[in-house]
């Protein structure tokens, strides 16, 4: 069964119930030959959700401007793929560099020299900009999502570019070799302060955005920042350490990849590759269960991002070396890793309040944490994927029902909605249905003793409490049969029809061999990734069942049609989808983090746009891939092809970068995007300048940088030259 082009290219979200049911029925028939009783049940739920679809284009008015809702066309010419060391945009668009690595938050600081001598990263922009939100602010200093000319930009600094951070490529290694603790501490402090989160007030004057230096809202959250542990894990014995003997506080957050934001005006910073910063020494005194936790989270020996911070004297540094060398847990750092892997809530509007670590969402490599649109009287629902190979998709459902009275409630509202609730993990069935399995003591599947096998070493474990289930969520998800995915990255709920989209960035031969495919992850190796989506039963985000299909498959344009399933062409071929945003108008933006696929020889990382349809608007297809063990064809469900969803390339980034982080103002006139690690892959001797010297000192993001620049991650702001609505 090959891929049949979708006849229905109407993407306006206004199909009748009957059409949706017929489409769903026909693809079930293609797959199974008959509509089973179970299928009829599925159709019943779809009919109920059909009313969630919106009508065709209309407009909405913000404080200052009119915005097109549910547009049917994208109003720009796609940009060609390119390998150029600058940002490339469609005709009629421009972009400024707004906030680059090292930019000061306060006027008392020296300008960034960018020669590796800069210090004070706790008062400057950190490195490797990633997830980001714009919190509009009204004239009384309150969160106002409609405010489009002033606000607080909050963004993550995921990681460091070692080749550009210090004075010379060998400076830190030399200090280590010479045991020069003074120098080493300087380098380590720079590295720990280069991570975390930035909160920075920005304003638009005369059509141009700039940073408001010395704003009371400007601050950095770093790996030193004190935070409160909250939710079920706080205070448990397994999070007590020498620095937090009560298990109720933690220092810092690290490897903050993507993010989320709440309707009560706060920011959610997710920790992704936190596990890689530790070095595990002798941990003989840990129980088998807790040694199993270390193994299941990949915390063994020196992690790939271990930076020898624990070679600096003092507990703030020693905590990155995990050992049981104390007499009891509060005399060492055997439990330090149990304090990480959660989502942290930051209130940009109350800068003196300590961030709160929300353990109720579970512990894993959180890519981000995306809050579904809230409804008075219904629980708050948060989607969060675990971005590691063969890991799972989760959601948190609050115990408390949402009340509009909490809309600007800050961290106190967070206490209400985020500290009590239920964590679920997704099972994607091959028939296009899915189920959310509860990870709590209420689920009898988790009773008793279980075994985790790590390359021949086995660990017995049980779950003594909900706190243990959350802190070892991966092990609980294993037990209930969650579906291993091809690396869940960003999730996004469609603002009008409620469909949930999730980028699955890619797989490799070990996590997705041809003998281990399923309909939701149907490709062996899957170097180009795909985007899956689902609709919760009756459109209720707290539901425990859903319907799914695959929105788009990444591919090079030249691949055969049973691999290039979505029919990508030169103007929209892409690989490794990561950042994802559906703006308030219903327009989708897809950002790529493509390392080495064939597409990288044709274009730098990029951002594309589409007008998505809805779950169930496509059909059944067969996808064929192979690896060195054989070739497999898997039946799955795919939405409209690239032409039907008007997939078009909007932006190409500078050399060596990843494009990640995206948010638009409510008036759709300004869009903020992050360019992460331009110059990656360059040589240490040239400080990566052999690959990139972006950005230019002029601040024009579309200009080439000067020859002497060390490349810098940066937030850019994109405008239409005539001041109009972006992309329409
Ligand atoms: Fe930091 Fe999953 O990307
Ligand atoms: Ca990412
Ligand atoms: Ca990624
Ligand atoms: Ca990255």
Automatic annotation (TrEMBL):
Cross-referenced PROSITE patterns: TAT (PS51318)
InterPro entries documented for this protein: PhoX, TAT_signal
Pfam hit, one: PhoX
PANTHER family: DUF839 DOMAIN-CONTAINING PROTEIN, SLR8030 PROTEIN
Protein name per Swiss-Prot or TrEMBL: Putative phosphatase
Source species of the chain: Marinobacter excellens HL-55
């Amino acid at each position: 069964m090959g891929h049949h082009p979708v006849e229905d290219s109407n993407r306006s979200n206004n199909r009748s119930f009957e059409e949706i049911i017929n489409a769903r029925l026909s693809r079930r028939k293609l797959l199974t030959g008959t509509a089973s009783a179970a299928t009829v049940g599925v159709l019943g739920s779809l009919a109920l959700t059909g009313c969630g679809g919106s009508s065709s284009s209309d407009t909405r008015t913000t404080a200052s401007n009119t915005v097109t809702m549910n547009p049917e066309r994208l109003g720009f010419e796609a940009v060609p793929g390119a390998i150029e060391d600058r940002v490339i945009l469609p005709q009629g668009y421009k972009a400024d560099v707004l906030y680059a690595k090292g930019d000061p938050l306060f006027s008392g600081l020296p300008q960034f020299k960018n020669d590796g001598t800069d210090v004070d990263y706790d008062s400057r922009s950190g490195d490797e900009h990633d997830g980001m939100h714009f919190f509009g602010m009204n004239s009384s200093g309150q969160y106002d999502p409609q405010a489009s000319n002033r606000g607080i930009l909050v963004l993550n600094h995921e990681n460091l570019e070692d080749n550009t951070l210090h004075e010379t490529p060998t400076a830190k290694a030399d200090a280590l070799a010479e045991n020069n603790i003074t120098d080493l501490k300087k380098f380590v402090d720079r590295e720990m302060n280069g991570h975390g989160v930035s909160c920075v007030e920005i304003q638009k004057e005369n059509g141009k955005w700039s940073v408001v230096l010395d704003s009371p809202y400007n601050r950095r959250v770093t790996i030193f920042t004190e935070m409160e542990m909250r939710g079920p894990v706080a205070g448990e014995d397994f999070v007590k350490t020498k620095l937090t003997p009560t298990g109720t506080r933690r220092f810092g957050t690290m490897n903050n990849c993507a993010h989320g934001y709440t309707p009560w005006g706060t920011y959610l910073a997710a920790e992704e590759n936190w596990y890689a910063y530790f070095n595990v020494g002798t941990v003989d005194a840990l129980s088998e269960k807790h040694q199993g936790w270390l193994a299941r989270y990949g915390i063994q020996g020196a992690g790939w991002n271990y930076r020898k911070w624990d070679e600096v004297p003092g507990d703030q540094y020693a905590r990155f070396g995990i050992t049981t060398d104390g007499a009891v847990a509060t005399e060492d750092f055997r439990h330090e890793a149990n304090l990480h892997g959660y989502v942290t809530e930051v209130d940009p509007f109350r800068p003196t309040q300590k961030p709160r670590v929300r353990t109720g969402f579970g512990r894993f490599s959180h890519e981000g944490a995306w809050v579904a649109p809230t409804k008075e009287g219904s629980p708050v629902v948060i989607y969060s994927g675990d971005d590691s190979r063969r890991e799972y998709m989760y959601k948190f459902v609050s115990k408390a029902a949402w009340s509009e009275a909490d809309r600007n409630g800050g961290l106190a509202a967070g206490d209400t909605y985020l500290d009590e609730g239920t964590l679920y993990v997704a099972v994607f069935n091959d028939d296009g249905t899915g189920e959310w399995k509860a990870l709590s003591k209420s689920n009898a599947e988790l009773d008793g003793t279980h075994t985790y096998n790590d390359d021949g070493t086995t660990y017995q474990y049980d779950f003594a409490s909900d706190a243990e289930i959350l802190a070892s969520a991966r092990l609980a998800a294993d037990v209930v049969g969650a579906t291993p995915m091809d690396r869940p990255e960003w999730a996004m709920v469609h603002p009008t029809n409620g469909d949930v989209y999730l980028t699955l960035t890619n797989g490799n031969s070990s996590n997705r061999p041809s003998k281990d495919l399923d309909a939701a992850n149907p490709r062996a190796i899957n170097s180009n990734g795909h985007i899956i989506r689902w609709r919760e039963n009756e459109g209720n985000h707290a539901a425990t069942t859903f319907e799914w299909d695959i929105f788009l498959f990444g591919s090079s344009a030249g691949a055969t049609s049973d691999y290039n399933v979505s029919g990508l062409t030169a103007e929209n071929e892409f690989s490794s989808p990561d950042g994802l945003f559906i703006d308030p108008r219903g327009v989708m933006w897809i950002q790529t983090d493509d390392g080495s696929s064939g597409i990288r020889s044709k274009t730098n990382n990029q951002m594309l746009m589409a007008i998505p349809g809805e779950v169930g608007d496509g059909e059944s297809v067969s996808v064929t891939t192979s690896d060195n063990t054989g070739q497999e064809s898997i039946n799955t469900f795919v939405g409209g092809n690239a032409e039907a969803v008007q997939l078009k390339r909007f932006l190409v980034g500078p050399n060596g970068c990843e494009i990640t982080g995206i948010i638009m103002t409510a008036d759709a006139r300004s869009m903020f995007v992050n360019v992460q690690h331009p110059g990656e892959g360059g040589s240490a001797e040239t400080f990566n300048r052999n690959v990139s010297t972006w950005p230019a000192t002029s601040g024009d993001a579309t200009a080439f940088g000067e020859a002497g620049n060390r490349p810098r991650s940066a937030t850019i702001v994109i405008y239409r030259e005539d001041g109009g609505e972006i992309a329409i």
